[in-house]
Amino acid sequence: MVRILIASTALIALTACTKGTIDGKITDGLTGAPVAGLRVIAKAPVATDLTCMALEGTSDASGAYHIEGSCAGNEYILSLGDDTRFIEGEAKVAGGEPIAHDLKTWVAPEGSGVYLLVDGELQPQKTYSDIGKAVIMNTEQAVRYPETAPKDDGWPQLSAGSHLLLLGEKNVRDMAFSPVLKSPEVKFAPEDGRDDITHWSLGQEWSYIGIQMAEDGAFELKTAEVDASKFVDVTGADRTARYIPAEAVAPGRYALLGEKSRRAYMFEVGGAPAPAPEPAPE
Question: What is the distance between the alpha carbons of residues 15 and 11, in angstroms, rounded to a whole number?
């Protein structure tokens, strides 16, 4: 009995002393640049030794990080100490040996939402307007329109070099751009159950979503010119995100919404940056 106890104790001690390291480089997914000062946490959900359940290291100026003390027999899940970034894909490594594991990280907070990403900084966006619905008089064509719209100089800008971030599986799946186009005053059919009016209108020139209309009731359906090949879709352990660069969408004004959305985000997408002014003659 004594010999068995001694042998078991020796085995536990040997297991506890078999330590490894985790080394890698952290880069930004959009730019490819190294990310400095980012804390990397390695946690073992089930550990053979309490002293090595949670370990960490911090990236240096070159993006390199180093973690010591991983225990053999443990699987470690890597996460970041900054909740405005996440790791692409699954980040799991074995303990007890030297492991090389680079991390590609992306700027995105927890949860879901819509953001502008400008020069690495997140700008949370709010839905701008409720969506109204109507049917053009003497047709069966339904239209959607923002009940309010930004002033000409008040549209949120998706400008060259910036990205629109759709965060959350539902937003990535459902949200799409639709052009917002001004049209002259248009007559609409009365709503079902209304027999006291022959038609109605918004009373002035108005903007409509995905449709261009004329004074005589003629209309043309319009779709956004979008290059989806430039979208970047990323999934991590707890986040699903889509990054849309400004150059993926033709210049214009858009509503960002789903087919069944009751409210819409509004954006103006700019073209190429204006050329630098020519120097004044001497």
Answer: 6
Q: Give residue-wise pLDDT tens across range 185-237.
A: 999 999 876 778 889 999 899 999 999 988 777 899 999 999 999 999 999 99
Q: Which amino acid is at 75?
A: E
> How many of the other CB atoms lie within 10 Å of CB of 57?
19
Residue closest to 124 by CA, chosen among 108, 101, 140: 108
Q: CA 86: distance to chain centroid?
A: 11
Sheet holding 121-124, edge to edge: 121-124, 113-118, 163-167, 240-245, 232-235
- Whole-model pTM: value is 0.85
Q: Can you count the helices (H) and strands (E) in the chain?
A: 2, 23
Can you tell me whether residue 189 is helix, strand or coil? coil
pLDDT of residue 5: 39
Whether residue 223 contacts residue 179, with contact meaning beta carbons closer than 8 Å, is answered with: yes
Exposure string over 109-126, b if 16+ CB within 10 A, otherwise e: beebbbbbbeeeebeebe
Instruction: Supply angle C-alpha 52, 53, 54, rounded to 5.
Output: 95
Nearest CA among 235, 85, 263, 266 for reference residue 172: 235
How far, in Å, CA of 124 to CA of 270, rounded?
A: 19
3-state helix, strand, coil in the chain (%, to 5): 10, 45, 45
Domain boundaries, the chain: 2-107, 113-269
What span, in angstroms and rounded, lies between the C-alpha atoms of 165 and 123? 10
Q: Which two tokens stand for residue 86?
A: 């996440």
The arrangement of secondary structure in 2-107, i.e. its CATH architecture, is Sandwich (2.60)
Q: Which residue matches tokens 């002035």?
A: 204
Report whether 46 contacts 74 (CB < 8 A). yes
